[in-house]
Amino acid sequence: MDRNGFKYFHICMSLSISHSNPESCSLSPGCPGPCPCRIFVAGIGFFSLCFLMTSLGGQFSAKRPGDTPFTMRAEVLGGPESRGVLRKISDMLEVIMKRMDTLSKLGNTTTDSHRLDELSSALDRIQPIGLVERIQAIAQNMSDMAVKVEQILQRSLDGATGQCEVPKDPHYPDCPSKVDWMRARWTSDPCYAFYGVDGSDCSFLIYLSEVEWFCPPLTWRNQTTTPTHKPFPKKQAAFRSDIGALLEQVGTGKESLSFMKRRMRRLAAQWASAARRLDDSLRSQWREQKRILVHVGFLTEESGDVFSPKVLKGGPLGEMVQWADILTALHILGHNLKISVSLKELQGFLGVPPGRGSCPLTGPLPFDLIYTDYHGLQQMRQHMGLSLRKYKCHIRVIDTFGTEPAYNHEDYATLHGYRTNWGYWNLNCRQYMTMFPHTPDNSFMGFVAEELNDTERLSIQRNKVDSMAVVYGKEASMWKGKERFLAILHRYMDIHGTVYYETQRPPEVPAFVKNHGLLPQQELQQLLRKAKLFIGFGFPYEGPAPLEAIANGCIFLQPMFKPSHSSLNHEFFKGKPTSRQVSSQHPYAEQYIGRPHVITVDFNNSQEFESAIRDIMRTKVEPYLPYEYTCEGMLERVHAYIQNQVGLCSSPGIPPSPFVLLPNSSALAWASNISTPPSWPPLSALRLLASLEGQSCIDACQSAGLICEPAFYRFVNIKEAFSGLEVQCEGVEAELNHIFPAFSVESSECGLQKDPLLFSCAGANNKYHRLCPCRDYRKGQVALCRDCL
């Protein structure tokens, strides 16, 4: 409908509504041809008739000089069928018009009733069956369109009067460009219409100021209509001992979920016992119950879920072991837990608006914390819109191999060659949570291994077979090329395997190996309790099985890597967001457990390998499990993170930092008599060291029996730290460099870190000594300092 047509229609519509008294009825001057406002023709209201007369004016009033025919878009009315209907309507209206001309000449001598009878009789003679209903439907559709057009015209009028002019506010510099983007792209996602965007500048500004935050609030808007969300009341968390509710939440339908539930049931008693002990030690502490969403992204159908089909075929189980333990720990600690293993569940829990994910959530984030993985993080980016940026500090990413700051900082990674398929999320690196404590820039989540009771320990001592070895490798491909040292081992021990196969024995497994096939967890535990040796072939890296074997009284023999494996030289690590040098199959077992429970040798050296076998046969060991991999250790650690890592959602500035030099030490400590800002870990644990040239802070702290603590970097990234270490600086500059803060003795250059996201324990440069913030740690709990609880 053109603008004149809309005007005619609007006048007729107004008259049809306003004139309820027949005495006041008059012709509508804007309508082409006679337009009596109180006539109802065979069930068709005046509104429909007037609209059709207006729309079809070009057809039934073309006889009037100067009239321009009006054309409707075929797609609006439904194509050729509708055009045929309109031709019939046009013919009918021609008859009606002639009849009305006749009736109008009768004057006051003819009553309204007589006119209606005459007109109704005319319609009865000409209308085909169903034509009235079709007219009504078309009229209703067009009237709906007219309402929308009127709204747009009104909003355009508002803009013309200055009410919806695009503001040029220096505090909102992106507002004009965002409005331009909305003008061109607002129909690209239905979520914009969901929030009331209709194509007008007013709707753009309302959306960009009230749903997103790129434009300033509109002064003419009634701000009281904006929904306000009351903060969720705080509740106290109470330890739980029953996991029944958790098992129901985990659900069914995937073999991976069944595996996780079996593990939860098997360890339920150990979790309950550990909860009682930790509850006793934390009795005086008030613990806040958190609202937590756990979204296991790698198990969703949208990510491919390659793990579930392999659970019963020897596939990797380490990730599912860890997720099962994370869910159990959060439940036992008493938090309010929601679990998602599908994209639909994720959208429902978060409050994702309908559409393609371009818009923010429909309300504030209904969770204090979200635990997910890289797959889940990608899914949240696709469906949370700008809300991901707003709430990303609440996310914890379960990340087996770790993410270093140089890979996490998107711009820096892109410019300096650290960009990979993972990483580049610009998170605080402590939001990444690893399976082992190999990357102090990240938080150590871990998992648990089954503990033995006193009866089981005695049974192991009686039933150990000194000449029995179990090979770490469920897939036949892991045995390929290992014949030489298997032959050496076979001279001393009976070798057992747990290689999966369906019908025929895998040819990679030598005939002298007794292969049990894939064993259920309980049967595998019984096998390990008899064996003296658990031997790894170099892959898989850093899995839970070696810790389980050591906990069952086995000695773990593993290969040393020369050179160390990394993303620079090994296919497995390529693309992973870390430059970590992996010196053996299981670096944690090598570094934190060591001999006599763990022996690391060069398998390519036959003499060294055979000597290690003989030493193992002579060595007696007790079952051993580090505290941090017990149920109590994991509960303690997760509790500490949840209650204390609240600072990840703030951006504290660099505080003034006076240091004191420790007596008889090259380390600096925070002055105890100075009022210090809040920090976790507490600043009492800080020890500042200078690394050697070409040494990372991980290695520098480790060589002093300490752990690098990235949370302390903001306190040492100051020029006073250099003078405290008696470093002479000709100048101090700040730049983006994941090695900084650091100094060069040769050139007297000193550099501070410009972006806190690049504070990094990892990384080394042959030119620089690094400033390294170190801390102590609790025995058996490397994630926590002595004063962290």
Please supply descriptive tags for the structure shown above.
disordered N terminus, 38% helix, 789 residues, 12% strand, seven-stranded mixed sheet, alpha/beta
Structure commentary:
By secondary structure, the protein is α/β, with parallel strands linked by helices. Helices cover 38% and strands 12% of the residues. The chain has 28 helices and 21 strands. The strands form 4 sheets. Strands 7, 8, 9, 10, 11, 12 and 13 form a 7-stranded mixed β-sheet that branches. The protein has a 6-stranded parallel β-sheet with strand order 2-1-3-4-5-6, with helices on both faces. Helix 13 links the parallel strand 1 and strand 2. Helix 1 runs antiparallel to helix 2, helix 5 runs antiparallel to helix 6 (112-126) and helix 12 packs across helix 25. It is globular, with a radius of gyration of 38 Å. Mean pLDDT is 83; it is low at 1-80 and 660-666. One of its GO terms (biological process) is protein N-linked glycosylation. This is alpha-1,6-mannosyl-glycoprotein 6-beta-N-acetylglucosaminyltransferase.
List the total number of helices: 28
Rounded to an integer, what's the Rg over CA atoms? Answer: 38 Å
Which percent bin holds the helix content? Answer: 25-40%
Largest sheet, in brief, is: 7 strands, mixed
Q: Count of DSSP E strands?
A: 21
Globular, elongated, flat, extended or rod-shaped: what is the shape? globular
The N- and C-terminal alpha carbons lie at a distance of 73 Å
Poorly predicted segments: 1-80, 660-666
| Strand residues, percent | 5-15%
Determine the mean pLDDT: 83
Structural class: alpha/beta
Membrane topology: Single-pass type II membrane protein
Domain Glycosyltransferase family 18 catalytic: 191-774
Subcellular location: Golgi apparatus membrane
Pfam family, one: Glyco_transf_18
